[in-house]
C-alpha cells in the first residue's frame, strides 16, 4: 500500500520488485532482501568495511527552500541508525545534510526512524539518506517503507505538526515543574501504516525526586460547551510510575479555568508505548486549551516519553450519541456513572488494554454478593416523543450473571424522575463481548435521560466489564436524498459494524447494478472505520428512478443486506452535466447548443484477390462513439469552471435527460475551441466545441476529498493569508491539502 503524499515511487518506497530506486553512497553494497513489511521486499545495505555506511535514493525530488519536509523509514539491524535528507542545488551540488538523532539502541526487529527539517536556502532538490555504523565488514542493515514528503499530521489535531511529533525540535513544549525536555529515538515497532508516528519522541526527565510535568506551549482556541479529547502515547520509565496527561482550559486572559487528568495504568512489563486519552467539555469561560503530561512521585533521572500528541473534538463512540465520550468509553475513570442501588462497585478496568472494546479501558463492575444492582449514567438532554436507543457492550469475567437489563430513565426540566423504560434483558452465553441494545420512546415532558444497567449476579465476587455505551435518537438505517441542484444523491448508512465491510450498488429500473464510487474507488467490500457512512453519488443518472442496494459484512464475515427508497434527480432538458468522477467539486452544469452527431470508427484492411469479384475485408472491433458536443457558458464563472474541469484531461461523465437519444457516457475530451457569440467585448457568453470519445467507466478512481480536514487544520499550520498563498495555488488545493 503506497504511503499517501510520498515523493518516492512505489518501487523506491517498498523496495518491490527491485532496488532500482536506491544507490550506495558510502562504504556499502546494496541487494534486495525479503521479509519486508510494506510488501515482501526490503533494502539490504551491506558494509564494505567497519564504519559508517550510507545509501541514498537514486532520484532527487523537487523542494521549495524554507518549507518543512519530513522523511521516515522502518529499519532493523545489529547497530544503531539514523535517517537524513540531503539537500541539493539546481546543479546537483550538495548544499547541506539534515540528520535525525541516532536510535538509543540497536534492534533486529523493525522499528521507525524519522526526521523533519526546513529546506535551506539554495536547495531545489532533496534525496533520502540511510545511515548506520557497523563494527565490521559484510554486516547487513535492513530498510523499507521509506517516505519523503510534506509533514504527515493527525487530521483535526488542534496542535501543529511539531508539537504533535517533536520531529523538528522540542520547541513546542515547556517545563512546568522539576523537569527538563529533550528528544530521544527509542526502538519502537509502530504499525507499518501508522504514518503519523515517527522515530523522535518527546522526553521529559525528572530533575529530582518528586512530581514532574511539562506543558504544550500552543493554546488553540475552543468553543465553550463542546467536548474535546486529548491523547498521547506514553512510555513510562517503570510500571509503578504514575504517568498522566491532562487537558487544560484557559480563559481569554490566559488563566487556567479547568484541568482534567487521566492516569495511565501500564501493563507489566511497561516497555511499550500506550495511548492514554482524556476528554472534557470546555467550560463557559474557556477560550483556549492545551495539554500537559507528567510523572507523579518520580525518581531523579526518570524519563517519560511521549509520541503523537493530539487535541481534537471528542468523537462519539456511536454516531449521534448524546453521552459524553468519558461516560461512553471510560478512558479516564467511570465519569458520571453511579450505583443507584445495590452492592455493586464500579471502577475503571486495569491495567491498560486488559478489558476494552473501545479505547484501552472499560468500566469494571463487581458484586460482592449474589444480588441485583442498578448502574446509572450521567443525565443528558433528549427530545420527548421520539425513539431513543441505548446500547451497552458487556463482557463477563466469569459467567456468574443471571441477567443484564438495559433501559433508559427519563427526567423533566425540573429534574423530576419520570420513570424508566421497560428495558431489554439479556443473558450472556459466553465471556465474549456483546452489544446489548434497548429502544424506548421518550415520554411527554422528558428533557433528560440516563442509561441504566440492571445487573443480577448469581454468585459472590462476580465481575462484569462494560464499555462503549451510547444513547442516540433512532434514525433510519438507510436514508437517501436527491439533490437535483447539485446533480447528486446522498446516501446515509447508519449503525454499521466497525471493522466490517460494505458494498454499495446503484440499481436502475431494469435491475442493472452499478457499484457506487467512494474515496477509495468503487465501494466493493470497503472496510468500515465508523458506524456511519455518508456517500455522495455524483454519477447517479438524471431523470431516471434509482435505488441503492447495500451488502454489509460483519467482522466474522456474516452478510446482511439493505435497500434504500427510490429517488430521481431532475435536470432541465436544455442542460447537461459534465462531471469529473474523481473531483466532484469541479462538476459543471452547461447549456447545450447542439448534441453530437456520432461516428464509430473501425480498423479495417481491404485485400483484392485476383479473379474474385469482391474484395476480402479484415475488420477489427468497432470502436465506441465519437462526436462533438457544442455547449454555451453563460458567465465568466462558468467559463473558468469549464476550463478547470477540462484542464486535468481526466475521463469525464456526460449526463443529459432521457429523450436525447443517448445514455450517460464516460468520455475523453480532445482539443477544445472557445468562441465569442457576438462582437461585443463585454459579452460573457461563450460557445464551446468539445470533441468527445467514449471511454470505459474508471474503476480505480476514488473521490478526492478533505478526509475530515477543516479550517481549524489550516489555521493550525498557517499564521497569515500570505503563508497560505505561498503554498497553495487554488482554493481547491487548500481543500484537498494539495501543496504546490
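Q: What amino acid sequence fits the structure above?
A:
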Amino acid at each position: 500500500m503506497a504511503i499517501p503524499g510520498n515523493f518516492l515511487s512505489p518501487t523506491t518506497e517498498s523496495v518491490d520488485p527491485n532496488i532500482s530506486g536506491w544507490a550506495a553512497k558510502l562504504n556499502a553494497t546494496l541487494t534486495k532482501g525479503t521479509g519486508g513489511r510494506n510488501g515482501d521486499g526490503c533494502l539490504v545495505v551491506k558494509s564494505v568495511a567497519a564504519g559508517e555506511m550510507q545509501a541514498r535514493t537514486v532520484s532527487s525530488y523537487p523542494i521549495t527552500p524554507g518549507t518543512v519536509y519530513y522523511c521516515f523509514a522502518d529499519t532493523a539491524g545489529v547497530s544503531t541508525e539514523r535517517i537524513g535528507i540531503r539537500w541539493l542545488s539546481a546543479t546537483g551540488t550538495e548544499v547541506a545534510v539534515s540528520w535525525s538523532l541516532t536510535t538509543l539502541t540497536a534492534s533486529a526487529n523493525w522499528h521507525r526512524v524519522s526526521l523533519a527539517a526546513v529546506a535551506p536556502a539554495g536547495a531545489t532538490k532533496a534525496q533520502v539518506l540511510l545511515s548506520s555504523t557497523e563494527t565490521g565488514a559484510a554486516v547487513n542493515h535492513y530498510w523499507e517503507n521509506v517516505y519523503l514528503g510534506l509533514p504527515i499530521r493527525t487530521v483535526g489535531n488542534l496542535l501543529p505538526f511539531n508539537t504533535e511529533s517533536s520531529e523538528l525540535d522540542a520547541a513546542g513544549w515547556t517545563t512546568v515543574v522539576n523537569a527538563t525536555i529533550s528528544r530521544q529515538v527509542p526502538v519502537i515497532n509502530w504499525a507499518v501504516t501508522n504514518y503519523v508516528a515517527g522515530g523522535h519522541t518527546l522526553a521529559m526527565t525528572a530533575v529530582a525526586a518528586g512530581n514532574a510535568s511539562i506543558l504544550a506551549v500552543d493554546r488553540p482556541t475552543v468553543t465553550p460547551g463542546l467536548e474535546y479529547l486529548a491523547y498521547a502515547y506514553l512510555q513510562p520509565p517503570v510500571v509503578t510510575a504514575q504517568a498522566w496527561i491532562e487537558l487544560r482550559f484557559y480563559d481569554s486572559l490566559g488563566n487556567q479555568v479547568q484541568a482534567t487528568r487521566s492516569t495511565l495504568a501500564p501493563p507489566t512489563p511497561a516497555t511499550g508505548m500506550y495511548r492514554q486519552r482524556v476528554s472534557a467539555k470546555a467550560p463557559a469561560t474557556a477560550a483556549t486549551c492545551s495539554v500537559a503530561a507528567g510523572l507523579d512521585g518520580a525518581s531523579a533521572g526518570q524519563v517519560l516519553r511521549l509520541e503523537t500528541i493530539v487535541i481534537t473534538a471528542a468523537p462519539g463512540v456511536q454516531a449521534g450519541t448524546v453521552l459524553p465520550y468519558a461516560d461512553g468509553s471510560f478512558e479516564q475513570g467511570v465519569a458520571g456513572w453511579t450505583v443507584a442501588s445495590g452492592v455493586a462497585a464500579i471502577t475503571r478496568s486495569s491495567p491498560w488494554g486488559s478489558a476494552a472494546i473501545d479505547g484501552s479501558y472499560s468500566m469494571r463492575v463487581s458484586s460482592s454478593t449474589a444480588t441485583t444492582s442498578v448502574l446509572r449514567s450521567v443525565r443528558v438532554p433528549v427530545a420527548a416523543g421520539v425513539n431513543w436507543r441505548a446500547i451497552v457492550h458487556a463482557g463477563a469475567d466469569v459467567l456468574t450473571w443471571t441477567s443484564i437489563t438495559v433501559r433508559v430513565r427519563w427526567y423533566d426540566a425540573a429534574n423530576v424522575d419520570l420513570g424508566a423504560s421497560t428495558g431489554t434483558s439479556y443473558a450472556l452465553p459466553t465471556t465474549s463481548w456483546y452489544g446489548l441494545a434497548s429502544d424506548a420512546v421518550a415520554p411527554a415532558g422528558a428533557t433528560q435521560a440516563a442509561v441504566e444497567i440492571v445487573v443480577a449476579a448469581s454468585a459472590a465476587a462476580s465481575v462484569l466489564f462494560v464499555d462503549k455505551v451510547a444513547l442516540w435518537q433512532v434514525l433510519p438505517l438507510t436514508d437517501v436524498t436527491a439533490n437535483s441542484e447539485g446533480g447528486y444523491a446522498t446516501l446515509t448508512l447508519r449503525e454499521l459494524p466497525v471493522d466490517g465491510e460494505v458494498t454499495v450498488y446503484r440499481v436502475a429500473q431494469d435491475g442493472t447494478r452499478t457499484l457506487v464510487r467512494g474515496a477509495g474507488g468503487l465501494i466493493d467490500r470497503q472496510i468500515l472505520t465508523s458506524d456511519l457512512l455518508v456517500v455522495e453519488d455524483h454519477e447517479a443518472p438524471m431523470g431516471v428512478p434509482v435505488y441503492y442496494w447495500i451488502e454489509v459484512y460483519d467482522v466474522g464475515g456474516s452478510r446482511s443486506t439493505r435497500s434504500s427508497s427510490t429517488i430521481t434527480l431532475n435536470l432541465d432538458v436544455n442542460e447537461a452535466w459534465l462531471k469529473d468522477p474523481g473531483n466532484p467539486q469541479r462538476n459543471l452544469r452547461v447549456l447545450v447548443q447542439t448534441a453530437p452527431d456520432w461516428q464509430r470508427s473501425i480498423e479495417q484492411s481491404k485485400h483484392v484477390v485476383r479473379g474474385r469479384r469482391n474484395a476480402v475485408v479484415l475488420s477489427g472491433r468497432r470502436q465506441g462513439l465519437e462526436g462533438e458536443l457544442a455547449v454555451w457558458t453563460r458567465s465568466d464563472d462558468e467559463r473558468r469552471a469549464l476550463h478547470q474541469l477540462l484542464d486535468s484531461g481526466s475521463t469525464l461523465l456526460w449526463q443529459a435527460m432521457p429523450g436525447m437519444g443517448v445514455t450517460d457516457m464516460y468520455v475523453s475530451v480532445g482539443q477544445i475551441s472557445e468562441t465569442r457569440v457576438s462582437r461585443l467585448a463585454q459579452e460573457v457568453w461563450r460557445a464551446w466545441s468539445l470533441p468527445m470519445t467514449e471511454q470505459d467507466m474508471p474503476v480505480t478512481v476514488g473521490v478526492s476529498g478533505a478526509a475530515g480536514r477543516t479550517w481549524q487544520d489550516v489555521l493550525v499550520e498557517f499564521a497569515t493569508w500570505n503563508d497560505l498563498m505561498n503554498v497553495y495555488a487554488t482554493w481547491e488545493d487548500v481543500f484537498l491539502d494539495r501543496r504546490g
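Q: And what stands out in the fold?
A: The chain has a mean pLDDT of 94.
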